[in-house]
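Check the record.
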Amino acid sequence: MAGHVRHRRYVLHDFVIGTRHRGVAFVDSGVRDILNAHQPQPAPYYPTNTFAIRRSGDRGVGMFATGNLPMGATILIEHPTVIAPFVLGLNTPVDDFFDDLFGSLPTRQYEMLMGLANCTPRTSVGHAEGVMDTNALAIELDVPTVGPNPELSTHRAIFMQASRINHSCSPNAKWEWDRKTLALTLRAVRPIRAGEEITINYVDVALPRAERRARLRATYHFDCHCPACARDDPRSDAARAELRAFGTGLPTFEDWTRDARLPDLMLIRAHERALSLIESEGLQVLGVREHVDAITMCYGALADEKMFRYWANEARAERAQDKVEDLKVVQAWIANPRALPVWGWRRDTTQARRRSSRSPK
């Protein structure tokens, strides 16, 4: 890693997105050149009254829904204010560096940054470094792909709104990063009631309770008391371990459709089990759509029109917040199930095996 850092030529890069958003990046010169060559567009419109930032008990401040949010609703789209490498090698004290980096922004942004939470012990790092360690999210940037010792694509970024979202081991929201638009999008992974705190996960939620809490304590210096941790239920660890190992030992969809020796409902029951565990643990952040889609495809392969339509409607509901054009394929399959490319694959396999078993030897 020391060799990697020696080959870096860091530069300060002020960036402006649209007419209103200003940020600052301290990046490798090659990354700066890419950022300059591909000016990102401002974030698209989204409702700005979806949340409020206010006190969250002993958790400092947090983000709260101002109205009922349906599953999949866009809560926030935000550009970063500060970007820095994930691995940073400097000849100056890191805290002084971050203080100077923050200070290159207008006074109001600097004051807002320095007012963010700092969970690190004050005796170990300075305030600016603590703010970066506490609030930065891992993002990916385009980096030069030619030449020796290329820069790492993973960077850290502070977002003035998203960085205020608190953690839960059963979060109700999930963020995604788009490196082309330099924008973070926060969406609800299940319905959120008005007044409910909006949460994301800081660590892998499929890990056991003790390991999740240990990682949070080591990195963010707090003991997690979210509902999942407060229960201290061994069954929760077992459920999360099962979800973490999902797919182990299961045949692929294609193998299942071709092998009549496998039970007809084998994959369906496995995905239904995963959905049940996700619901009981509040782990929609791990993904519901792929399980619903898999069950839909399986019933299509079985040529079970009634169950296919039921699950295809569930798949459409999972896409309720998607663009209209993205729903057209699912809607077409609901209208005409036999248009599904894999329609009847499994049925044809089992029927062929029955005919073979009845043939004279």
